[in-house]
């Protein structure tokens, strides 16, 4: 029961970050600032992958299985996003895509708590909290400008995605807790591949499109922030 409340607390904080970002995304934010926020969030995710998620996956599953699962995660999300673009209108596609982008992050948080030490869950929770604010800003802004929804609807959708965070994290934990560590490593690598694909095809290109080259400093600050968090919690 103690684990339940710990995961619920940290994953709910990450969900609240989506809601905060969703609210800020309904406001007029200069493109240069938005671009920096996006690259900051991207830097956080890249650091999580390099120093936390993939490190743990490799330790549990070894080089071959980790590599296969990582590549399969990216390919899987490539196919899912392609299908979403074909099957749904822009507004619905953006909503589903946003929820889909958030899912592997929240699941990986629960998986992190399911590892032997559980410290990875703490690292992911804090890092994902920092990332979810820029992600929420970007999603809400895109929903309003391209999906043609009202600011109120964008905030309500952000609330729905925020609620998914603890549900996904708890699901990840209880489905995987007690499983062989090699299997947990495979799922971590799959999540890592999907997160990296999303970062490289969504957040960074958006930042490059709306911002200046100087926005890339956000990558540095985001990467460094998540790296320091991963060292502090070890």
> What structural class do you assign from the helix and strand content?
mainly alpha
| Tally of DSSP β-strands | 0
What is the H-and-E element order? HHHHHHH
* Helix coverage percent: over 70%
Radius of gyration: 17 Å
The general outline is globular
Main beta sheet: none
How many helical elements? 7
State the end-to-end distance. Answer: 24 Å
Q: Hey, roughly how much beta strand do the residues contain?
A: under 5%
Overall average residue pLDDT: 84
Give the low-confidence spans: none
Task: Walk me through this protein's architecture.
The protein has 234 residues and is mainly α. It is built from 7 helices and no strands.
Secondary-structure map:
Elements: H1 2-24, H2 31-87, H3 90-114, H4 119-145, H5 151-176, H6 181-210, H7 217-232
Task: Considering the chains and any ligands shown, give keywords for the structure.
0% strand, mainly alpha, globular, 87% helix, 234 residues
Short description:
It is built from seven helices and no strands. The chain is mostly helical and 234 residues long. The relative contact order is 0.25.
């Amino acid at each position: 029961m103690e684990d339940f409340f710990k995961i619920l607390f940290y994953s709910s904080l990450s969900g609240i970050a989506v809601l905060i970002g969703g609210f800020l995304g309904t406001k007029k934010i200069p493109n240069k600032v938005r671009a920096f926020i996006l690259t900051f969030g991207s830097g956080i995710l890249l650091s999580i992958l390099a120093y936390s998620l993939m490190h743990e996956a490799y330790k549990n599953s070894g080089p071959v299985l980790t590599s296969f699962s990582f590549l399969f995660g990216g390919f899987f999300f490539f196919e899912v996003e392609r299908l979403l673009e074909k099957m749904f209108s822009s507004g619905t596609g953006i909503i589903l895509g946003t929820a889909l982008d958030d899912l592997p992050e929240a699941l990986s948080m629960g998986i992190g708590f399911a590892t032997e030490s559980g410290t990875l869950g703490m690292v992911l929770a804090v890092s994902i909290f920092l990332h979810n604010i820029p992600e929420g800003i970007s999603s809400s802004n895109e929903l309003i400008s391209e999906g043609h929804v009202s600011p109120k609807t964008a905030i309500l959708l952000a609330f729905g995605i925020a609620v998914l965070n603890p549900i996904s994290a708890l699901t990840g934990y209880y489905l995987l807790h007690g499983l062989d560590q090699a299997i947990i490593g495979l799922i971590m690598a799959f999540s890592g591949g999907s997160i990296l694909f999303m970062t490289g095809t969504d957040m960074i290109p958006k930042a490059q499109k709306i911002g200046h080259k100087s926005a890339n400093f956000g990558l540095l600050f985001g990467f460094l922030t998540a790296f320091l968090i991963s060292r502090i919690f070890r």
